[in-house]
Amino acid sequence: MENKVYFLGKSGDFALAEELYNLISEQLSVNAKVAVLEKGVEEPEDFDIIVCEYGELKSSSANLLTYSIGQSNADICGFNFMTREKSRSLDLFSQSFMGRVNLPIDSKFSEASVLYAAAGLVAAGCPLTQVLKAINSKIS
């Protein structure tokens, strides 16, 4: 496998995260082979980094990065989901940086799919600032 982010889950949000990743990945430099896991998916082998929901995996042979909706103790967090007349937004926080993603009301991408895509890209070595810029340039 090449350096790429793989989304291992069956939900619609995971399919949308993969679609969003494919839409923006050409703008970013992916430097690792990353698996983003949906809750309940077993840890795969042969990945440089595993990304999972905070608290999901207790031990890992690979580097581990966590995501969470609403819990600030994960490595990357999505919170402050807001809906306005013409747009939706969420804030993403990672380490010491926080930024906003704006989604049109009629966007097929969900807030969760944006979080999963961003978590995978951050794990692959892309700075969150660049990830947010790429996402907002394609879907805002």
Please provide a written account of the structure:
- This protein is an alpha/beta fold.
- It is 27% helix and 31% strand.
- The chain contains 3 helices and 7 strands, in the order βαββββββαα.
- The protein has helices spanning 12-24, 111-123, 128-139; strands at 5-8, 34-37, 49-53, 63-69, 76-83, 87-94, 97-104.
- A 7-stranded mixed sheet has the order 1-2-3-4-5-6-7.
- Helix 1 (12-24) packs across helix 2.
- The longest helix has 13 residues, at 12-24.
- It starts with a strand and ends with a helix.
- The mean pLDDT is 92.
Please render the helix and strand layout as text:
Blueprint: E1 5-8, H1 12-24, E2 34-37, E3 49-53, E4 63-69, E5 76-83, E6 87-94, E7 97-104, H2 111-123, H3 128-139
Strand order of the largest sheet: 1-2-3-4-5-6-7
**Class by SSE composition:** alpha/beta
Percent of residues in beta strands? 25-35%
Q: Looking at the structure, what is the overall shape?
A: globular
Pattern of helices and strands: EHEEEEEEHH
Please report the distance between the alpha carbons of the first and last residues. 31 Å
- The low-confidence parts are none
Total count of helical runs of at least 4 residues? 3
Tally of strands:
7
- Profile the largest sheet: 7 strands, mixed
Percent helix range: 25-40%
Mean pLDDT: 92
Calculate Rg over CA atoms: 14 Å
What are the salient characteristics of this protein?
alpha/beta; 7-stranded mixed beta sheet; single chain; globular
